[in-house]
Amino acid sequence: MVKVAVIEDDLPTSNQLKTWIEAAKPGIQIDQWFSRDDAEAAIARENYDLVVLDIELGRERHAGVAIINAINKQHATPVLVVSAMPATIYRSIMKALDAWDYLQKATFEEADFIETFLEILRSVKERKQHKESQTAAYKEAAKSPVADQLSMDPLRQRTPIWRGQRINLPLTAQRILAALFARRGQVVSYEDLYEVVKSGRNRDNIRKHVSTIRDAFREIDADFECIENVPMRGFRWVDDDAGRS
């Protein structure tokens, strides 16, 4: 049975999230926790498939950060952050902590939450089913002459690998990367990229996602230049050699 923890100190919000999860995935086990201490104790004894987490719990403004750190030390369980904290500030912080996605309260609908929630669960399932085969493939790719090429999960076009190393990206950035790589050598317009994002369908937001992708690649490869900006049109993935010319 799939086990999910909802860590949220506000009871109505916690119950609302529980109701949405039950509607999206009937039969799921949902544990509700309302304080940092109870949540950390549960994380230590349970192996959850997914944690839905608020950052601010009671008077502890950043209790959720401590909980994510505890999760990463023990199980590396996927975390979906649902918080009132401004996404413009906290999305990058959560990304640095390896949270899978970030939803800002009062800016999303039930459908947005359910879509993101189910998407993460599917990723978890696939990761469990194919972990061994993927690991073997990645090791083999790292030894081959084409190790410099981008490798993506063939099932969901996720977990990108560059030069034999994993690229950590939020889900929206992964979808944009997949769209660019699938049409490598061609211009992918802003309008086309709007189709792969759930919210923020404007040029500034797309540019921010692309900047996030570039930064993630450059943490591994400082000379990465494979995503080309095409002024007024969109972006294009170019071959490694071309991007470095």
UniProtKB/TrEMBL annotation:
SMART domains, per database record: REC (SM00448), Trans_reg_C (SM00862)
Protein's UniProt keywords contain DNA-binding: yes
SUPFAM superfamilies recorded: C-terminal effector domain of the bipartite response regulators, CheY-like
Gene Ontology MF term list: phosphorelay response regulator activity; transcription cis-regulatory region binding
GO terms of biological process kind: regulation of DNA-templated transcription
4-aspartylphosphate PTM sites in chain numbering: 54
Domain Response regulatory: 3-120
Family matches, as CDD domains: trans_reg_C (cd00383)
PROSITE patterns, A to Z: RESPONSE_REGULATORY
Organism of provenance: Undibacterium pigrum
Name listed for the protein in its UniProt record: DNA-binding response OmpR family regulator
Keyword annotations from UniProtKB, A to Z: DNA-binding, Phosphoprotein, Transcription, Transcription regulation, Two-component regulatory system
One Gene Ontology cellular component annotation held by this UniProt entry: cytosol
